[in-house]
C-alpha cells in the first residue's frame, strides 16, 4: 500500500510545511505586554521555576534538561505535555545572574530541523522590582494572549505566595 499523496492547492491541509515560521521569522512581535512585579529578581526566577507545580489533570510539565553554560548562565528546557494537544510545547529558559536577566522562549521545531521562536518572556531586575515583558511572534487570537499573560502573572504570584507559606512554621 502506497502512502497518500498530500492534497495541494487552496484549502489544502499541509501537515509537514517546510517551516512553521515563514510568515513571522525575523519580524517584530505582533504583541507586547509587560508587568512590573514588586519582587526582586532572585525571587522571580525561583517563582518562575515553581509556577508549574500546581497544574490541572490534563497537563504535565517537566524539566527536560539543565546546563550551566558558564559561571553566570544557566539554561533549562521545560517540556509541557497536554492531553488535548498533539505535540509537546517546549520552553528554553536562560538565566543570567551577572546581568540579572532571564529569557524564557517558547520554541518549536520546523520540519527542516531549524528552530522557530513563538513567544519570548524577558525578566529584568529593576532595583528591588522585576520587569516581565512578553513578546508574541505567532498567535491566532491576541485577546487570548492577553488572558494567557494575565494567568501567567497570577500563577507566578501564587508561586511566590505558596513559597512564603512553606517557609512559615
Summarize the structure.
The protein is of the alpha+beta class and 169 residues long. The chain has helices at 41-50, 142-167, and strands at 31-37, 59-68, 73-82, 89-96, 101-109, 115-126, 129-136. The protein has a single domain, classed as Alpha-D-Glucose-1,6-Bisphosphate, Chain A, domain 4 (2-Layer Sandwich), CATH 3.30.530.
Which features would summarize this protein structure in a list?
169 residues, alpha+beta, Alpha-D-Glucose-1,6-Bisphosphate, Chain A, domain 4, 7-stranded antiparallel beta sheet, globular, disordered N terminus
| Estimated radius of gyration | 18 Å
* SSE class: alpha+beta
What would you say the CATH architecture is?
2-Layer Sandwich
Proportion of beta-strand residues: 35-45%
Verbal overview:
- The chain has 169 residues and is α+β, with helices and mostly antiparallel strands.
- It has one domain: 2-Layer Sandwich (Alpha-D-Glucose-1,6-Bisphosphate, Chain A, domain 4).
- It contains 2 helices and 7 strands, in the order βαββββββα.
- The protein has helices at 41-50, 142-167, and strands at 31-37, 59-68, 73-82, 89-96, 101-109, 115-126, 129-136.
- Strand 5 and strand 6 (115-126) form a beta hairpin.
- Helix 1 crosses helix 2 (142-167).
- The protein is globular and about 50 Å long.
- It starts with 30 loop residues before the first strand and ends with a helix.
